[in-house]
Structure formats: C-alpha cells, structure tokens
Amino acid sequence: MHKKIGSLILTFCLLLALTPETVMAATMERTPIFIQETSAPAEPVNQTAPTEQPKAAKKQPEAAVSPNLEGSGTTADPYRIKDAAQLRMFTDAVNGVGGAPNTGICATLTQNINLSDVCGPDTGSWTPIGTNTNPYRGTFDGGSFTVSGLYCQKPDASYAGLFGSNAGVIKNLGVAGGSVSAGSYAGGLCGINKGTITGCYNTASVNGDKYTGGICGCNDSGATVSVCYNTSAINGSKYVGGICGYNKNATSDCYNTGTVTGSGTSIGGICGYNKKLLSGCYNTGEVGGGTGYVGSICGYNHSGSTFVNCYYLITGTEKGNYGTGMTQQQFASGEVCYALNEGNGGSVAWKQTCGTGLPGFGGKTVYRAQTYKGDGSTVFAYTNDSNKKTAAYNAPAPYTAPSADSSTENTSDNSGEHTHVYQEPKWNWKKYESAKATLICQDCGEEFILKASVKKEVTEPTCTEDGETVYTASVERDGVTFKDKKVVEKERTGHAPKLISKGPASCTDPQYIIDSCYKCANCHKYFEDEKCKKPIDKKR
To answer: Mean of the pLDDT values across residues 120-127?
Structure first.
C-alpha cells in the first residue's frame, strides 16, 4: 500500500516538472494559427463603432527622370534637355515607363535636337509624349529650337506626333522635317490638343485617316492653337487641315503654305472642320481632293461657329467658300499683313517687309499710308516707315463695287465718285427658310440689306453614317457672292436586325447555306450575327 502511494507521488512530481515546457510549446504552436484565423479583439465588439476600412493599395511611384538631366522638372526649374537620348528619357517618364505616368513635369530645350539616332525606319517609330488616357499636362518650352528627324508611324493606331496628347502647354517649338502617320489623330506637334499650343511650327509630312493636321489632328474643346504655321504636305481622308483637322475651340493667328489633300469630306487650308472660332489666319497652299466641303481656309464651318478675318491666295483653282480672296500682289505688298493685325483690334502679331514674301511672326511692322488723287479718290499704300502712317482704318477687303445691284432692299448705289468696299455681311436667318444679309461699307458705314436665296441639301442618315440637312444662303452685290450655311445634323439610324430562320421563305433570297441569319429592316442587308457586325456578302 505504501509502495502504491509512493509511486503516485513520484508520477505527480514528474508531471509538475514537465508542465511548463509543454504549455509553452503548445502556446508557440497556436499563436500564429490564432492570428490567421481571426482579428477580433478579446473584448466584446462595440456594435456602434465604425467598421475598420481595409488599407488602400499602395500607390505606384511615378516614373523617374534620369538624374543626368539638369533641373527638377517644375515650372520654375524645368528639366533642361540637350539631346535625343534625354528627350526619350523625358518621354518615358511622362508615359510611365517603369512607374506611374509622370505627366506634369516641365522641360525646356537648350539646343536643336535630331531624333534620327532614336527613331527611324531601321530603329523603329518614335513613341509620342503623352497618351489620350494620360495626356501631357506640364509646360514644354522649345526655347525657339527645333526637333528634327521625327519618325512616328502608327498606321493602325491613333494619336501620333511629337506629342500624342497634350493637355498642358507646348510653346516656342519647331518640328523640322520628318514624317508622321496614324489611323486617326495625327499632327506634327501632337495628335490631339486639349491644352495650349503657341509659337510653334511644323515642316514634317503628316498622313492619317480622320483628324489630320499640320500642328494637331484635333484642337479639342477648351483648347487653343495660336501663332503657329505649317509648310509641309498634309494628307488624310476626313477632317484634314493645314493647321488642325478639326477645330472644336479656338484657332487664331496661324498660316499654312503646304499642300492639303483629302479623300473624304471637310478639307481646308487652315482647318477641315470649324466648330467654334477661327480668326486671323491665311492660307496660300493648294487644297485639293475631297468629296465635299473643301475650302481654301476651312472645309466646313459649323452652324453657330465664328469665322472672321481670314484670307486665302487667289490662284484660279482656289476653293473660297469661306474667307476673303487676295492676289499675290496684295500678299506681297503688306496689305494682308496689315489686315490681319487690324482684325486683331490693332494687336501687332503679324510682321512683314513690304514688297516681299508673306506675312509672318518676325520682322517689320506694316503701316498703311493714305493719299488722294486729283479726282478726290483715295489710294492706300503699305509701308514699314512709321512716319508715313495715317490714322487707323478698318482692314480693306479685296472687293470693290463697280455698280449697284438692283436686288437690294436699300436703293442706295455707288453713284458719284465713292466706291463701296464691303466687310463680311451680317446674316439674319428665319427658321432656316429665309435669310437676309446686311452689307456695310467699311469706308462710309452705309448699310445695304439683301434678301438671300436659300438652297436646301439633304443627306439622309443610314444605318452606319450620320446625315445632315444643309441650308445655304447666298446673295450677290457688285459681282461678289456672299454665302452662309446652317446645318442640322441627323444621327445615324443604326441597324434594325430581324432573325430569319433557314427555310424556303427565309434565307432563300440571298440563297445562303447557313442555319440562320439576320436581316436589317433599314438597309435590307443580311448578317450572320444579331449585332450586324458580320455581313453576308458571298454565297456559301
């Protein structure tokens, strides 16, 4: 009995000696399991307390610019770029190569840059600065230097140029030579401008489909293009212009001397399609091709938009549906230069040496001198001598009136010595059915009100193309015809598919061996799918 009691006591002591290590080991094994299974506090949860939100994903750091670049990338201290390699580093940082897009950084050029070492037929296409999703938002100052050797080829994509998409400021920059090509939105400076482009020029050839221009393919809503020019060939299909293919906001003080051609509609020397404001521009380049809406200044001027103080060269093949035609002598003499500045309210943006060349943005100021003949008539001459200038006059129009037109409601005429010189008329429409034009003589201020004839042209919408009704008002006075247009756009109708089962009374008309097909109730064409994406155009 005593031996049994002793054995029990010994066993009990051994258990006491082993217990701390066993408990510790169990605790160490359970602790990570406990943390993974629950994060609930030991105390009861307060139901009124806000639920803890998960932590946000860590933001990807912006792509860094090479430390070899001088500057910090701010407006006050921009990166200073001196060669093609540095410009490509800058492009990678903006586009987010190696990090998030760093679109707000600023830069300035310190010398002319040739890109032929980083892009070309053998080395590959230039990657534009900024994308449509992440446009460039900083300030890029060319410093009056040029970027040459641009080779940007995106025939199956969009947004091509030195910049793809700009929502910042591009200024004082020239794209000197090279070539740009894209499916849509192609321009020498940028594919689409959502910000500001000023003091820039392009001599690179540009080819595209829709939205093709020398400076930008499209000048978007709220954006501006000013004091820019293009001298190279621009070619596209729809919305093609020497400066911008499509102008949705403001394009001013620009000129084009390059050839502009298109295969579709809305082809113009300055812009293919103007939807808001086009002012103070001129074109001397040849404009050709197109199936409709082709003009020496603007192919099409949208209803409600503004089009003022623009001039084009009279060549005999010009398409002057908008703007004012001027002769070569009027361009060379300084008359057009003076007219462009007077249209700016006297702001002297345009310069020229009288008697030579064309108006530009550097050189001498042009003044107008007034003299009188013995018969009392007035003669104007243009000079760079400020001592010969006279009081300011409104910019002269190229048309003079040899005789009165009996169709005017105002019976005043050009009898006597005075010859009326007309400004662009003011139009008054009444429900698209009738219109009147008010002509004002810029010298004497006399008004002439003419009743216009209105022509209506209807293009019905189809399943895939928009339609429109165009009302064109025209008046004639003293051998000069003035026109204005109003457009009512019609949305495309879209396909109206109807399922047709295979059988004698269904698909036997096209005689296709298929299980089923869809016929559009609008265009009466057959398709394999309900969305009418796969037309049936061959017998099976």
So the answer is: 96
Q: What letter would DSSP give residue 53?
A: P
Q: Output the six-digit token pair for 125.
A: 């296409």
518: β partners: 499, 527
* Cβ atoms of 191 and 198 closer than 8 Å: no
C-alpha distances (whole Å) from 15 to each of 6, 8, 20, 145, 304 are: 15, 11, 10, 90, 98
The answer to whether the beta carbons of residues 176 and 203 sit under 8 Å apart is yes
Amino acid type, 116: S
Dump pLDDT digits (tens) for 449-464. 888 888 888 888 888 7
How far out from the chain centre does Cα 237 lie?
15
Strands 516-520 and 497-501 turn out to be antiparallel
| Cβ contacts of 142 within 8 Å, gap of 6 or more | 108, 109, 170, 171, 172, 173, 174, 199, 200
Of 163 and 393, the one with more pLDDT: 163
Q: What is the mean pLDDT of residues 220-248?
A: 97
Distance CA 369, CA 386 (A): 9
Residues 115-127 have a mean pLDDT of: 96
CB atoms within 10 A of CB 269: 37
- Region class of 10: left (phi > 0), else alpha (psi between -120 and 50), else beta: alpha
* Mean pLDDT, rounded, of the chain: 81
Query: Strand pairing of 292-295 and 265-268?
Result: parallel
